[in-house]
């Protein structure tokens, strides 16, 4: 391991590139701990602060994760973004047992809360209107990967199971359909990239300068009235958006003898 002092690239970026290459080669596998910061600094012959900057860069890129009091580890595989949204309903509107095995969802809170602007706009109410909010956290074995919330109109949920601070043994939309008497028919997803809030960064255990992907999911009934507005936020560097779709075949060439117009 060495750096080139005469190179245009900063030393910490050279170190980050070499560490990344080692991870890609499999020198360190997912979940494996890297040598300590002082040990890596000695390998490269640089100051510990230079190595720390390299590690910080790879954390932002989603390659490494630091566990306080334990060390720096190679993060596991990236999380596919299509688990939620369309995937939350399933091919047969059923529960995804394979997803339940890989991800653990924890209910954080249930109660009235002021609607943020994007949620208020989706429901067509004023900003800050009190709505029912069910907040959750999703984890893998090694780290949190999603913080989110589902919002409902109090008029739809008063006296129903949705107001109870308990998890259900089935997808939330199925519980909501039964509780509200309204069926989910269509939905829209809006995905954006931004910096995390302080609370999001703390919950997701990421640096405040790590970008996140944010989903606004609005589910409608047959009359195009919103039933649920869901938010989900993921650490950007460890989340991938994967969408598979069919490409239409080209239309046959028109008959050259056909005159249009």
Question: Which geometry do the CA atoms define?
Answer: globular
Structural class: alpha+beta
Distance between the termini: 71 Å
Radius of gyration: 24 Å
- Give the low-confidence spans: 91-99
Largest sheet, strands/sense/barrel: 6 strands, antiparallel
Number of helices, counting only DSSP H or I runs of 4 residues or more:
9
Estimate the mean pLDDT confidence: 85
Q: In oligomeric terms, what are we looking at? A: single chain
Q: Please indicate the percent range of residues in DSSP E strands (runs of 2 or more).
A: 25-35%
| Secondary-structure element pattern, one letter each | HHHEEEHHEHEEHHEHEEE
Order of strands, widest sheet: 4-5-6-9-8-7
* Helix residue percentage: 25-40%
- What is the number of E strands? 10
Commentary on this structure:
28% of the residues lie in helices and 27% in strands. The chain has 261 residues and is an alpha+beta fold. The strands form three sheets. It has a six-stranded antiparallel β-sheet with strand order 4-5-6-9-8-7, with helices on both faces. The protein is globular and about 65 Å long.
Protein topology:
Elements: H1 11-25, H2 37-44, H3 48-60, E1 64-67, E2 71-74, E3 79-80, H4 86-89, H5 97-102, E4 104-114, H6 117-123, E5 130-139, E6 144-152, H7 154-157, H8 172-180, E7 186-194, H9 198-204, E8 212-220, E9 226-235, E10 239-240
Parallel strand pairs: 3-10
Antiparallel strand pairs: 1-2, 4-5, 5-6, 6-9, 7-8, 8-9
Helix pairs in contact: 1-3, 2-3
């Amino acid at each position: 391991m060495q750096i080139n002092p005469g190179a245009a690239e900063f030393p910490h970026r050279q170190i980050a590139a070499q560490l990344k290459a080692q991870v890609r080669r499999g020198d360190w596998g997912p979940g494996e701990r890297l040598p300590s910061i002082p040990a890596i600094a000695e390998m490269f012959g640089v100051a510990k602060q230079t190595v720390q900057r390299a590690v910080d860069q790879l954390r932002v890129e989603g390659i490494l994760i630091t566990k306080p009091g334990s060390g720096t580890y190679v993060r596991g595989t990236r999380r596919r973004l299509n688990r939620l949204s369309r995937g939350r309903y399933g091919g047969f509107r059923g529960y995804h047992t394979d997803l339940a095995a890989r991800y653990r969802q924890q209910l954080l809170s249930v109660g009235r809360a002021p609607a943020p602007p994007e949620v208020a706009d989706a429901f067509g109410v004023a900003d800050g209107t009190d709505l029912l909010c069910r907040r959750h956290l999703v984890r893998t074995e090694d780290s949190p990967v999603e913080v989110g919330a589902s919002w409902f109109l109090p008029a739809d949920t008063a006296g129903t199971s949705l107001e109870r601070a308990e998890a259900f043994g089935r997808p939330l939309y199925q519980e909501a359909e039964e509780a509200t008497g309204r069926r989910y028919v269509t939905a829209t997803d809006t995905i954006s990239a931004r910096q995390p809030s302080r609370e999001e960064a703390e919950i997701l255990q990421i640096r405040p300068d790590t970008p996140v992907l944010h989903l606004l999911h609005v589910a409608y009934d047959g009359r195009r009235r919103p039933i649920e507005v869901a938010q989900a936020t993921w650490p950007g560097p460890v989340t991938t958006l994967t969408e598979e779709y069919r490409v239409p075949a080209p239309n046959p060439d028109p008959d050259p003898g056909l005159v249009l117009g």
